[in-house]
Amino acid sequence: MWHVTLYNVLTQINNVLLILIGIPFILQFLYMFLFWLPKRKFPKNEEKKRICVIIPAHNEEDVIFDTVRLLFERQNYPKELFDVYVVAHNCTDNTAQLAEKAGAKVLVLDDPDPKKHIVSYALKFGYEHILASGIDYSFSIRLDADNHVCDDFLSLMNDAYLSGAKIARPYESALNMTQNQFTRACGLYYIFDSRFSSRVRERLHIDAHVNGPGSMTDMEIIKKIGGYDTVSITEDTEFCFKRMLEGYRCRFVEDAVVYEDLPSSFRDTMNRNKRIAAGNARLLGKYTLKMCWNTIKQLRFSFFEQILTYNFTFICLLLCTWIPAYYIYACAYLGGMGALTGAEAAALGIAGPGLWQLLVIIGICLGALFFIAGISQGLLLILLDYKKMGANKRRELLSGALLFPAFTVVYCVTMTFGLFSKPKWVKINRNTGKKE
After folding, report:
1. What are the b/e assignments for 198-234, b being 16+ CB within 10 Å?
2. Is residue 128 assigned to a domain?
3. Which of 42, 184, 218, 321 has the smallest CB count inside 10 Å?
4. Measured at the alpha carbon of residue 317, what is the angle toward residues 313 and 320, in degrees to the nearest 5?
5. Distance separating alpha carbons of residues 170 and 210, to the nearest angstrom
6. What is the mean pLDDT of residues 41-68?
């Protein structure tokens, strides 16, 4: 019967897709289960190198003054050994004036080309001017306009640099973790990669995912490539991929904490994930074969691990489209056949379980994902790292753990919409809950 054949074919396709979805999920579970591994500490060094901090900014007058001011006021690092550069990119507000007032060296970029109204062109412009200045910086730190960092941030990155790190990322936390229920759940989702994934990668000698706020780069690399050589939407990830392909290791400096302004609503998350999803899709199309080939060529699992992780973008698409559509179809089909048991279905040549067995399997899988991989994961993060999340007591964040599975659904939905969007670098509505 044609409908049996169709059902069997779709079931086999679904089984293959479940395997493809399951592989990166298993990797993430492994990272969570290895939470007990000790963090990597870089030895303290009395030698202090000269540092440039570069901050791309588009209409950020709400936050830029405090970001720059706190760097100069609170960093436990010689003030004469670091400079802060703010690239005011097509600003129509007082970003440039406020950054200069706070002590930054301001570079103004006004480019009428709408195709260049993304952060990568601001970074490219900034690094060109830093190289042209002739100042001999040892390494750079890239921050976003809303970022605050821990007081020892520059010292810790300096220690990592002097220990041989050429490219490194910090621990990413939130300025506004306790602002509302949404940010509590959102923060746990993003902090997972710092506390679990990045720590395990560092301990197992797998490259860190160096993607944005607080990232450190040896200026010799910038000189070698002639500035900043990526101009894509997700320029930070592409920069990381390129350097890995050139043979550089990407490290994780866990004690160096950067605090960023997290999305506090569905709309904010949608705007953020438009850029991430659209950029990741283009990036995977361009680099998947190169990264997989270098996994074999260099016998380095880091390349394949990066591709697996970034493929969560397409997994989100499957989770929002194929997976619900298939199981609704399967339940409707088996139910329409008279609620067949597994034996009855097999007798008709139908692959897989009967209706009731399928419903039980779906329930078990959803329960495991929501409670084991969701709530328990959030509770473990709170137990281990609540202080880095800006909370005084663990109970301030407990509601975030309970809502963690719900935010995962929101994340998948917004990433799926983002795959079909054309994001722009627009003014972001900043939240007021800040860590000082």
Report:
1. bbbbbeeebbbbbbbbbbbbbbebbeeeebbbbebbb
2. yes
3. 321
4. 135
5. 8
6. 94
Q: Is the dihedral of CA 281, 283, 289, 292 positive or negative?
A: negative
2 in a domain, yes or no? no
Q: How far apart are CA 85 and CA 221, in angstroms?
A: 19
| Residue 254 located in a structural domain | yes
Would 208 be classed as within a structural domain?
yes
Residues in Cβ contact with 122 at an 8 Å cutoff, skipping those fewer than 6 apart: 56, 57, 58, 87, 89, 109
Give the model's pLDDT for residue 344: 58
For the chain, the domain total comes to 1
CATH number at residue 79: 3.90.550.10
Q: Enter the tokens of residue 165.
A: 């790190």
For residues 239 and 389, give the distance between their C-alpha atoms in angstroms, rounded to a whole number: 28
At residue 434 the predicted structure's pLDDT band, cuts being 50, 70 and 90, is: very low
| Residue 430 CB neighbour total at 10 angstroms | 18
SS3 content of the chain, % helix, strand, coil (to 5): 60, 10, 30
pLDDT tens column, 264-305: 778 878 878 878 888 888 889 899 999 999 999 988 999 999
Relative to beta strand 167-174, strand 215-218 is antiparallel
Domain that holds residue 207: 51-270
The per-residue pLDDT for 343 is 62
